């Protein structure tokens, strides 16, 4: 018999003890540099010996996706004030996010 344990990392990453307005999407908070972020306060890839070995592949792929998208399109939320619909599946997954895409080559 064995027992599975799953850490609720999404909750760890939004602790009031570490972040101001943790529920808000403020990516600029990461621009201040690594030294301003408290150790183990943001661990989307886990930690310790079971740390995600795919982290660098995932980050590189996501950066390429973002650059390809924003290079070619203006992206605007259809309903900017509507809260995101998310569901918890090991992490929080966005279920729906409607956006307008405008080709930069046309405008
Ligand atoms: C945004 C993308 C990803 C996120 C957020 C993510 C997150 C995680 C997390 C939280 C864990 C568990 C760490 C723990 O148990 O403490 C994990 C484990 C793992 N991840 Fe990822 N991961 C991502 C992408 C990837 C990719 C692209 C690969 C492979 C190419 C990968 C391969 C693995 C493997 C093999 C483990 C198990 C490690 C072990 O148990 O020793 N992950 N990941």
UniProtKB/TrEMBL annotation:
PROSITE patterns: CYTOCHROME_P450. It holds the Pfam family p450. Transmembrane segments: none annotated. One of its GO terms (molecular function) is heme binding. Signal peptide: none annotated. Its cofactor is heme. Heme binds at residue 52. Keywords: Heme, Iron, Metal-binding, Monooxygenase, Oxidoreductase. Belongs to the cytochrome P450 family. This is 3223_t:CDS:1.
